[in-house]
């Protein structure tokens, strides 16, 4: 209306209200009958985690300082309201952080008091429990902004009268249901009378009453007359702080998993107070709580380092190198110790809730439920609300939504993506599925708990997101390279689970398996044909291949998810990945390889060894051009990692000892590397074979080294995507993966791939009497002809 005077106010208002309702509907919670209410035992466990587990870190002190800084900066002519949002996905301890702030506020130094309110709609689905009475008092039915402002003033008055002991009373709101009733009763009896403020300048150290509203998205529900509690609260905070004056303030803190709570400004038509004559008012930047990531793991490392002897302490100068030493220790040590360490990584929720190693099944189930909006994996859990469980795929593949896509905020709010940053204009959200090993194990359960769930629900939904270009895959080969990640994960899962159901494998998932077992699953148990340069038969190389395979006796591998590699990896990177049960994704500008899988060997009388598999992925069809060089030279460590003219990595030399410089991977002998070449195009024939070359085909030019130029070097090749090549795949999974790869090239490929999938679905259901065979009426040739016409398909 301001810019287009021809548009009537009534029309603009109607459009605006409809738009806001549509937007809010996407992330304001509604009653979901599938959400399981927590039983008494679960609530006790959450309560213990919330109150008895030692808090790690200083996030609460950082929040206190930020609130003080915001109060100092706040003026009603520049900012929308004295209010900030605390945002992050579930499990980072947002509620615990403000409780620690409240405990700290009992001390006089902060000159701050915290009143906690949980506005959760579902009272028994989380902890702390909802403070329904306190919320009902503040946001009474029919209230106007002035009414809420009056109650906010009452809160400030009451706190000032009882400043010495009010925090002890309010602290009970986090844990005791009775406190909800008692605090509400005392505030109801209090007046909103406040003595006049005669000060002319703001007191930077004045008293701050922090009003915390947890699960704040529930305030966004629309009410009659185009109102909602969020909008009225913001304006009430502006109003009451004018009355309080310069002596102090009441400051709002809104907590939620949904990052949009930080930037949902009401339309100007509904709230003209948010507009200045020369521009819009600003909102304070949200607090993105990421500090608690790995908090228990960091503490674990510090405790172990404190127990080392003085000689070890002198060797370990750098904290990050000390962590690498810890990763090495848990990888090569006892399996139970490794699990205990794994639970400490990622979100603090895992270890806080299930600190006992015997709780392995419980913590994995918790992680799985979190990926499905709190619903245990079942037939009903894979629905449009849970996006058919696709978060389990994003988590394991290490992909994230594009920052400007609508999925970015929802992935954090509902599907456990980690929020890293909210951009200046609140138009983009940088999120990721960073390495969270327990969440990856929960994702495994989502994959396998429901038979055919992967092919029927999860993979088709992933394909839709890819074709909609909603995801940043992080890799070089886009869809094809991501399909290769899935294939390798499925092979790894097969090694761990075999033919068993997931429910029978809680004690084995997350463990390492022999490298030879992994290679056998990936290639099949039959002997693979051998070819040499020019694709001539090289069966005479069989003894050398058997000798090469035997060198991997005693080596182990294990990964449950992928991590994006940003810096040039070195030996420390391999131990980091092993410790977190992860494989690596090279950045888009990486030479040669696309993926990296670390492997290790325990040594009883010397230091453990660590090496790697390098994987290159291609999507070439019908001719795999450039294969020979791609499968040899481009998968050599000197090519993948070498940056300098002498072939050495910029990472520098290594002593191989803890505390020394990490060993550069460019110096790794190609014969000590397992090289895998994957082409994920094609749907028939067996694409497995071993490609045999010699050292002279793999050495850096003009740097022959001491190796014999005729020494054999091998590459495992998997050049077609089908069940013959990958026998561990089911028919339906192989079909949908092939369909995904073929769909990325052009729209007609999408049509052909979908028709292939339809044909195979009809074959699988040929004996089902109720199955509707669409090919009888919608003929393949006719559909293709129609698609070519619509796409203006050029001949060739």
Task: Write structural notes for this entry.
- There is one protein chain.
- By secondary structure, this protein is of the alpha/beta class.
- The chain folds into four domains: 230 residues, Rossmann fold, CATH 3.40.50; 138 residues, no CATH class; 206 residues, no CATH class; 45 residues.
- Helices cover 39% and strands 13% of the residues.
- The protein is built from 28 helices and 22 strands.
- Strands 12, 13, 14, 15, 16, 17, 18, 19, 20, 21 and 22 form an eleven-stranded mixed β-sheet that branches. It has a five-stranded parallel β-sheet with strand order 2-3-4-1-7, with helices on both faces.
- A hairpin with a 6-residue loop joins strand 9 and strand 10.
- Helix 5 runs parallel beside helix 8 and helix 15 packs across helix 18.
- The chain is globular, with a radius of gyration of 30 Å.
Secondary structure elements and pairings:
Elements lengths: L8 H17 L14 H12 L7 H15 L9 E5 L6 H12 L6 E7 L13 H7 L6 H17 L4 H6 L5 H13 L17 E8 L14 H16 L3 E9 L18 E2 L2 E2 L6 E2 L6 H12 L3 H6 L3 H14 L2 H8 L5 H6 L6 H11 L20 H7 L2 E2 L4 H9 L3 E5 L6 E4 L4 H12 L4 H15 L3 E2 L5 H20 L15 E2 H9 L6 E3 L3 E2 L4 H9 L4 E3 L3 E4 L6 H9 L2 E4 L9 E7 L7 E10 L8 H5 L5 H5 L31 E7 L8 E7 L17 E7 L12 H13 L3 H18 L15 H11 L6
Parallel strand pairs: 1-4, 1-7, 2-3, 3-4, 13-21, 16-17, 19-20, 20-22
Antiparallel strand pairs: 5-6, 8-11, 9-10, 12-15, 13-14, 15-18, 17-18, 18-19, 21-22
Helix pairs in contact: 3-4, 5-8, 6-9, 12-23, 15-18, 16-18, 19-26, 20-21, 26-27, 27-28
């Amino acid at each position: 209306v301001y810019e287009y005077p021809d548009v009537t106010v009534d029309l603009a208002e109607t459009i605006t209200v409809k738009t806001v309702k549509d937007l809010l509907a996407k992330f304001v919670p509604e009653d979901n009958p599938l959400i399981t209410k927590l039983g008494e035992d679960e609530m006790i466990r959450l309560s213990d985690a919330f109150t008895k587990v030692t808090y790690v870190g200083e996030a609460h002190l950082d929040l206190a300082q930020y609130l003080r800084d915001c109060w100092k900066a706040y003026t009603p002519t520049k900012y929308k309201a004295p209010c900030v949002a605390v945002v992050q996905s579930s499990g980072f301890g947002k509620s615990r952080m403000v409780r620690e702030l409240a405990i700290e506020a009992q001390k006089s130094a902060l000159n701050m008091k915290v009143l906690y309110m949980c506005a959760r709609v579902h009272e028994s689905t989380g902890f702390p429990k909802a403070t329904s009475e306190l919320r009902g008092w503040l946001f009474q039915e029919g209230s106007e902004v002035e009414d809420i402002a009056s109650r906010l003033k009452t809160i400030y008055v009451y706190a000032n009268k009882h400043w010495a002991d009010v925090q002890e009373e309010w602290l009970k709101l986090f844990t005791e249901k009775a406190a909800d009733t008692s605090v509400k009763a005392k505030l109801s009896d209090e007046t909103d009378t406040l003595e006049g403020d005669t000060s002319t300048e703001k007191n930077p150290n004045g008293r701050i009453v922090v009003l915390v509203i947890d699960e704040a998205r529930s305030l966004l529900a629309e009410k009659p007359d185009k109102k909602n509690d969020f909008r009225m609260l913001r304006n009430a905070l502006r109003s009451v702080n004018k009355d309080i004056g310069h002596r102090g303030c009441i400051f709002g803190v809104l907590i939620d998993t949904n990052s949009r709570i930080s930037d949902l400004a009401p339309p100007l038509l509904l709230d003209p107070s948010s507009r200045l004559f020369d521009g819009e008012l600003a909102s304070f930047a949200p607090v993105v709580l990421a500090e608690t990531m790995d908090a228990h793991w960091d503490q674990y490392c510090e405790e172990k380092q404190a127990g080392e002897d003085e000689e070890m302490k002198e060797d370990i100068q750098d904290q990050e190198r000390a962590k690498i030493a810890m990763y090495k220790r848990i990888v090569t040590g006892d399996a139970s110790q490794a699990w205990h360490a794994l639970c400490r990584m990622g979100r603090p929720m895992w270890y806080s809730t299930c600190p006992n190693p015997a709780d392995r099944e419980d913590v994995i189930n918790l992680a799985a439920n979190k990926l499905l909006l709190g619903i245990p994996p079942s037939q009903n859990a894979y629905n449009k609300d849970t996006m058919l469980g696709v978060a389990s795929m994003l988590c394991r593949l290490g992909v994230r939504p594009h920052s400007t896509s609508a999925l970015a905020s929802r992935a954090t709010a509902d599907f456990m993506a980690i929020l890293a940053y909210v951009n200046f204009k609140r138009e983009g959200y940088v999120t990721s599925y960073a390495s969270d090993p327990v969440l990856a194990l929960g994702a495994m359960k989502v994959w396998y708990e429901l038979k055919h769930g992967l092919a029927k629900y999860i993979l088709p939904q992933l394909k839709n997101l890819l074709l909609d270009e909603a995801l940043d895959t992080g890799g070089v080969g886009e869809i094809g390279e991501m399909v290769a990640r899935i294939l390798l994960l499925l092979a790894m899962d097969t090694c761990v689970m075999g033919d068993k159901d997931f429910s029978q494998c809680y004690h084995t998932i997350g463990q390492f398996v022999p490298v030879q077992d992994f290679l056998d699953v990936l290639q099949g148990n039959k002997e693979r044909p051998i070819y040499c340069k020019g694709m001539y038969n090289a069966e005479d190389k069989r003894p050398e291949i058997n000798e090469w395979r035997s060198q991997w006796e005693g080596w182990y591998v294990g990964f449950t998810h992928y991590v994006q590699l940003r810096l040039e990896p070195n030996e420390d990177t391999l131990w980091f990945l092993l410790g977190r049960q992860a494989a690596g994704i090279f950045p888009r500008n990486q030479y040669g390889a696309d993926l990296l899988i670390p492997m290790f060997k325990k040594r009883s009388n010397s230091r453990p060894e660590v090496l790697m598999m390098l994987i290159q992925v291609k999507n070439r069809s019908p001719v795999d051009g450039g294969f020979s060089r791609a499968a040899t030279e481009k998968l050599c460590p000197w090519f993948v990692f070498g940056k300098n003219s002498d072939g050495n990595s910029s990472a520098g030399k290594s002593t191989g000892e803890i505390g020394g410089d990490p060993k550069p991977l460019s110096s790794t002998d190609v014969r000590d590397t397992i090289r895998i070449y994957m082409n994920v195009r094609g749907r028939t024939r067996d694409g497995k074979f071993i490609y045999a070359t010699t050292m002279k085909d793999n050495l850096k030019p003009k740097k022959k080294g001491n190796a014999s130029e005729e020494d054999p070097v091998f590459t495992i090749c998997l050049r077609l995507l089908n069940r013959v090549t990958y026998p561990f795949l089911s028919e339906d999974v192989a079909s949908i993966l092939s369909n995904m790869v073929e769909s990325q090239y052009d729209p007609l490929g999408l049509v052909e791939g979908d028709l292939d999938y339809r044909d195979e679905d009809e074959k699988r259901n040929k004996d089902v009497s109720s199955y509707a065979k669409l090919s009888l009426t919608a003929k393949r040739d006719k559909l293709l002809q129609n698609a070519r016409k619509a796409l203006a398909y050029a001949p060739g």
